[in-house]
Specification:
This protein is an alpha+beta fold and about 325 residues long. The chain contains eleven helices and nine strands. It catalyses: [protein]-peptidylproline (omega=180) = [protein]-peptidylproline (omega=0).
């Protein structure tokens, strides 16, 4: 799949057997519905856990009608696929069953009989009545939001009854949701998810031997929030969360860089230089850090030139011999 919208090659060829392409293909496919209504052929194996029933999935897909070269439906042209929640955003029963049989990174081909696709009526004008359709689906990723939503709804006392690993897992899921929303340029929504993750981590007290796990999780969220507030053009908050990250890891180059960006945004050039030079010390060949220092130098040069021009005007004599500002 991977953006291809050509008809799958296995469907092409002679028809000497008297069977249609879909009939030939179905003979070597796995029945995952129990009534041969949803058939599956794995093209590339995935890894990890199966998709959970309440998950939100990130997929690429193309749907084909028999004897047609181009898909009638595909999202492969989108730069970033939309996150879709099972049971809400996916309308084909066959696709939902198919996704529940998949693992991250898996690419598979499915045949959906009408009962699991568009039914006896079809979907005019594209889908005729009683039509079997083929879908190629690539599962890029999935996030189990149900577990996270239920856990976040609990009181702090109830959450404390769960082991630390559970809290860390839910916080990581919230952060992953935030990352996805950030990539979609939905910065406000991303901030909400990051703050939910941070609240979970702040609430939880851990024994000394496990506190480093909580601090490591907090560090990632602080960095995410700092970057998000920069995109929201709120540099004061970006600096605050960057400095929180530095309390955990004072040599963290990313945190120093974010703080430098925030100070530059606020035209606090000396502070910006201090943070950026410290970041450069940790990562001397980092392209972004070095470019930010060049930007700082340019901005500071413009600033000093304007200051000199203002001073020059203040002390330049007027026609009557007095300087500007003199009574």
């Amino acid at each position: 799949m991977g953006g291809s919208t050509r008809s799958p090659r296995v469907l092409q060829g002679d028809n000497a057997s008297g069977q249609s392409p879909y009939e030939r293909l179905s003979r070597r496919m796995l029945d995952i519905s129990g009534d041969r209504g949803v058939l599956k052929d794995v093209i590339r194996e995935g890894a990890g856990e199966l998709v959970t029933p309440d998950a939100s999935v990130l997929v690429k897909y193309s749907g084909y009608l028999e004897h047609m070269d181009k898909p009638f439906d595909s999202n492969c042209f989108r730069k970033t696929p939309r996150l879709m929640k099972l049971g809400e955003d996916i309308t084909l029963w066959g696709m939902e069953l198919g996704l529940l049989s998949m693992r991250r990174g898996e690419l598979a081909r499915f045949l959906f009989k009408p009962t699991y696709a568009y039914g006896t009526l079809g979907c005019p004008p594209l889908i005729p009545p009683n039509t079997t359709v083929l879908f190629e689906i690539e599962l890029l990723d999935f996030l189990d939001s149900a577990e996270s939503d239920k856990f976040c709804a609990l009181s702090a006392e109830q959450q404390d009854q769960f082991p630390l690993q559970k809290v860390l897992k839910v916080a990581a899921t919230e952060r992953e949701f935030g990352n996805y929303l950030f990539r979609q340029n939905r910065f406000y929504d991303a901030k909400v998810r990051y703050k939910r993750a941070l609240l979970l981590l702040h609430r939880r007290s851990a024994p000394p031997e496990e506190q480093h796990l909580v601090e490591a999780a907090k560090l990632l969220v602080f960095l995410n929030l700092s970057f998000t507030y920069l995109r929201l053009e709120r540099p004061t908050m970006a600096l605050r969360y960057g400095e929180q990250a530095l309390l955990i890891d004072q040599k963290n180059a990313k945190a120093l860089f974010r703080c430098g960006q925030a100070c530059l945004f606020m035209t606090e050039y000396e502070k910006a230089r201090d943070f950026l030079v410290r970041a450069q010390k940790e990562q001397p060949f980092n392209h972004d850090i070095n470019n930010e220092l060049k930007k700082l130098a340019s901005y500071y040069r413009d600033y000093t030139d304007k200051e000199k021009e203002m001073c020059h005007r203040m002390f330049t004599p007027n026609d009557n011999g007095s300087t500007v500002g003199e009574n």
